[in-house]
Amino acid sequence: MKIALINASPRGKSSTSAVLLEKTKSYIAGSNEFFDIQANKEKLEPAELETLKQAEIWVFANPLYIDSLPGHLLAVLEQLEIECRQSHKVYVIINCGFYEAVQNKTALSVYKNWCSKAGYEWCGAAAIGGGGGIGFMPPELPFNAGPLKPVNDAVVKLSACISGGTKTEDILASIGMPRFLYLLGAHAGWKKAAKANGLKVKDLYRR
User: Dihedrals φ, ψ of 198, to 5°?
Assistant: First the structure.
């Protein structure tokens, strides 16, 4: 099969979406041809569109932005709807900074409605909560162990469906740590970012 791995994170190759796509790729069974597409801008190049036309399967990966998809990705979806009229199977890996994976539901509905309108075949998604913590895990920590295991299990399930070209219900998974610990880490991260940008903690609460 020809499979397009579409990284739609604004952070490109340094993103959590890139990590999740790479793991997905490693779990997809069979003899396949993979195309890596960086969709971190509002318009794909003609060569990228031609590549996507050739792929039977599209696997999108992106972060959640304000309970929906990043603005540039919406523009890309509109472009694909107009310029790629062939039928394709669509899978999605979406992650959010919220601990609860269910926060991704609205964004997945955008994808589903887009597929219905454009004539693509919606095949399912892995929706990850606590995605903000994935990049902060020690590099020596196995992806299939500890706090990352629930995320890994969701990716394995989706990869199995991609391998067989089958559909799945939404697979929801949150990072494997207590919610209060995740929130403590998130607060520490915001404070560190504020300091790095010359701000005080109280500045984070300005309106």
Answer: 75, 20
